[in-house]
Design a protein that fits this description.
This protein has two domains: about 280 residues, no CATH class; about 35 residues. By secondary structure, it is mainly α. Strand 3 and strand 4 form a beta hairpin. The protein has a two-stranded antiparallel sheet with strand order 1-2. About 70% of the residues lie in helices and about 5% in strands.
Length: about 450
């Protein structure tokens, strides 16, 4: 019985709990709820998933060393694949980014689907993928308009998509929103709204970050390759230092992480990141932004490298002059300015980057799972390898817009070419009059 004739503070509290539980009986399916531990068993555990041949060959080794060998083998496979994709150029990198994004989204949505056990609820998976397509249409469309507006405007039937891109994107989202409202089922409201929020958080984490990655690629391949490589270096070297020298636990969210691995990985990232930056600064293929050439009529990566990628001479601080003179007798240092920016990125990837992994570890611990998936033996799912990359992509994009990005004639011409002919003529006349007035044009 929930009600008594005598009402005390304690009884009043029990009465509240009873009324709440009765309300829950009406509005939720708690009677069919399963424990998280049981639901987690339905999800794949990637580090336990190993090819049969490799498992039989390594069967005689202790678990610790067997996992180390498997992880090392597939790490080199991923590095080789990454180098091959870079060789394929910007288009291959963008396609790979889209594929990785879709796979990460799938892994996150699958966790929500399993943990909440809503197999009887309508349209959850369909709605999730619909919102993914809609958000990709919006973000990738923004990139296309920024970098391919000239080409698209020259194609009559695509001009409408450019002009009304945001309105079309909004309409597509509204369709999904109405679809979700119509799919609400009595007694399941809480679960459905939780999963609606789950889907949008997944979109925020995955789609928005992949959009920023594409923007980084268009600024020059070096702005993509160097940060991604720094995260890989930090992850690999932290694992190596932690495996062989790790003794002191770093954080409770990830018990296997150690201070030795964290410090060793950080130092290695700074050193190797600077070396990689120095080498890549010497090749136009990596430093030139991807731009549309009106002369060639196509996208090009050929340019005169900016001052950022040309050697500059810097005067050393007084405190370092003594050391410098002992080594080479100079009080100045010649280097590429990008290396100084690379130092900032290496410090971020070493100090803050691992917290993306800690966040993912906390997420997995909340649902009692070991990995996001089982795509990569010894590593887990795609999301297990890219949890830090998304955080790094955001930092690089913000860094470029804050400290690097400036308006250039090429960028402005992209916008001018997208104007109507009469608008271009008006702009030309206005610019000519201004230059004549200032005495810069006779």
């Amino acid at each position: 019985m929930c009600y008594n004739e005598t009402v005390t503070h304690k009884n009043l509290y029990q009465l509240f709990l009873c009324s709440f539980s009765q309300k829950e009986d009406v509005e939720s399916e708690d009677d069919a709820k399963l424990e998280v531990e049981e639901l987690a068993k339905t999800l794949p555990q990637g580090t336990d998933h190993t090819p049969h041949i490799l498992s039989s060959v390594l069967s005689g080794l202790p678990d610790r060393w067997r996992n180390w060998i498997i992880r090392t083998i597939f790490t080199w496979f991923m590095i080789a694949g990454f180098c091959l994709i870079i060789y394929g150029g910007p288009l291959a990198l963008m396609v790979t980014t889209l594929i990785v994004q879709v796979k990460c989204f799938e892994e996150i949505i699958n966790i929500g689907y399993a943990v909440y056990r809503i197999h009887g609820l309508p349209w959850f998976r369909s709605l999730s993928w619909y919102f993914l397509i809609t958000s990709n249409y919006f973000f990738y469309g923004e990139n296309l308009m920024d970098y391919f507006a000239v080409v698209i405007n020259r194609t009559g039937y695509l001009r409408v998509l450019v002009t009304y891109h945001r309105f079309i994107s909004f309409c597509l989202y509204i369709v999904g929103f109405v679809w979700f409202v119509l799919s609400l089922v009595k007694k399941y409201y809480m679960k459905q709204f939780s999963l609606f929020a789950w889907t949008h958080v997944a979109l925020l984490i995955v789609v928005t970050q992949s959009y920023l990655i594409i923007q980084n690629i268009f600024e020059g391949l070096i702005w993509f390759i160097v940060p991604v490589s720094m995260i890989v270096i930090n992850d690999v070297m932290a694992y190596m230092f932690g495996f062989f020298f790790g003794r002191t636990p770093l954080i409770k969210l990830s018990p296997k992480k150690t201070w030795e691995g964290f410090i060793g990985g950080g130092i290695s990232t700074v050193i190797l990141g600077l070396l990689m930056s120095y080498v890549m600064c010497q090749y136009r293929y990596f430093v030139c932004p991807i731009e549309y050439s009106e002369t060639l009529g196509r996208m090009t990566m050929d340019c005169e490298p900016s001052s950022l990628f040309q050697p500059q001479e810097y005067t050393l601080p007084k405190s370092l002059e003594v050391i410098s003179r002992m080594l080479n007798g100079k009080s100045t240092l010649t280097l590429y300015p990008f290396i100084l920016h690379s130092l900032s990125m290496s410090l971020f990837s070493s100090v803050i980057g691992p917290f993306g992994g800690f966040f993912a570890s906390g997420f997995k611990r909340a649902f009692k799972i070991k990995d996001f998936g089982d795509v990569i033996p010894g590593h887990g799912g795609i999301m297990d390898r890219f949890d830090c990359q998304y955080l790094m992509a955001t930092f690089v994009n913000v860094y470029i817009s804050s400290f690097i990005h400036t308006a250039t004639p090429q960028k402005l011409l992209q916008q001018v070419y997208s104007l109507k002919p009469e608008q271009q003529l008006q702009l030309f006349q206005t610019l000519r009059d201004s230059l004549e007035h200032r005495g810069m044009l006779n």
